[in-house]
Amino acid sequence: MTGDILSFHIFGQVIVVLNSIKVSKDLFDKRGDIYSDRPVIPILDMMKWGWLVPFARYGNFWRQGRRLLDRDLRPGAVTAYRLMQQMKARVLLTRLLASPDEWEAHIEQLQGELILAMTYGYEVQGHNDRKITVARQMATLSSTVTFPGCLLVNDLPFLRYIPEWLPWFSYKSLARLGHELGEEVLHKPMEFVKESMAKGTARPSLALKNLQETEKLSRTEREKAEEAVAGALASMYAAGTDTTVSAIMGFLVAILLHPDLQTTAQRELDAVTGRERLPTFEDRSKLPFVDAVCKEVLRWRPVGPLGLPHSTTEDDVYEGFFIPKATLTACRGILHNPEVYPEPDAFKPERFLEADGSLRDDPTLAATYGYGKRICPGRHLVDTTFFIFIASLLSVFNIERGKDDDVRHVEYSFTGAGISRPNPFRCSFIPRDQRAEELIIADTMAR
């Protein structure tokens, strides 16, 4: 046991926690074939969520789904969605101007709309659209049931056999709920795309593109390929509705705690746009401070502070430490290591800036998206979506505390589940001035 590697046992399970980026890269990157498996999580088996790529075991099914996501979400491919991302960010501005008290619902809604449009070409039908609510329910459930120590059945698998008439000990009703949600997320959107293709009304989307590619295959091959496509895209759909929203919420808390940073970011934005237009992706290279704020949010309050645990496929030895097969390996504290990030609990965007104000490259920050072969395939999409939403918000709104909040006594806390986000808090979106309102209205009229 050292400061960089901690090892302990729980219910006979060996768990190794890595606390340095060097060790994480040595194991997850350089020895990826050994450290890229996932542990068996009994509640997920009970829910029949084996199609979820993030939780899939290291094997052919995972490789097929991962290959598809890597291809469609690589940096070059993600640029195709910039106009859509930009448009959704501006729709958010319109809705915030019209009903600012519903800010949280607007943010969640717009992210859901973006993911559904990109993935399935689906146009959301109002705030209560089932395709958004079911994905959000599944994301919340998966974050909860996979969090270490949350469910005893994950540590004592025999509990899965306890009959349902023993409600205090049975997990069958929870498993049934998860299965129903999973089946809806997996099948309903794909059915929509296939029906739209048959009618000739399908909009461009990842699902349409991948389904068209399977048409040249034999029937058996096509069925297998469609299963892989459905699982990969449903994984993106379920995960994408929650992660970016959580990052945006973390940004809001950071600004409420440090309003001076908002002023600095707005000054930079105004210098670039001249307050004649709203920001675009083409402005990003000229907005290093805004970019640094986004990066610091992801470091300060990472969306997945623990990440999903890896599992070893065989025995290994690292610097004299024996790590047996089926060991759970996870990372913790790397983004809050004081040797890498002095005053790690402080929110300091300047840590990502050079002395001349330009953006500093920081490879350690990639840890916010995971490690090795299991790094989040959607990281480039999250990065661009997060940036354009934040830049757009700052360009026209002042983000302030709730009207009745006492500045001296407001405290903000974050959930401890798999996906971390702030606990409920109040926030006000106030147009910076009349010019800000004019920019929002002009953009709304032009759409």
From TrEMBL:
| Required cofactor names | heme
Q: What Gene Ontology molecular function terms does this protein carry?
A: heme binding; iron ion binding; monooxygenase activity; oxidoreductase activity, acting on paired donors, with incorporation or reduction of molecular oxygen
Record PANTHER family: P450, PUTATIVE (EUROFUNG)-RELATED, P450, PUTATIVE (EUROFUNG)-RELATED-RELATED
Family classification: Belongs to the cytochrome P450 family.
Q: What is this protein called?
A: Cytochrome P450
Q: Which Pfam families match?
A: p450
Give the pathway: Secondary metabolite biosynthesis
- Which residues are recorded as binding heme? C376
> Which Gene3D superfamilies does the entry mention?
Cytochrome P450
Q: Which InterPro entries match?
A: Cyt_P450, Cyt_P450_E_grp-I, Cyt_P450_sf, Cytochrome_P450_fung
Sorted alphabetically, the keyword list is: Heme, Iron, Metal-binding, Monooxygenase, Oxidoreductase
Membrane-crossing ranges are: none
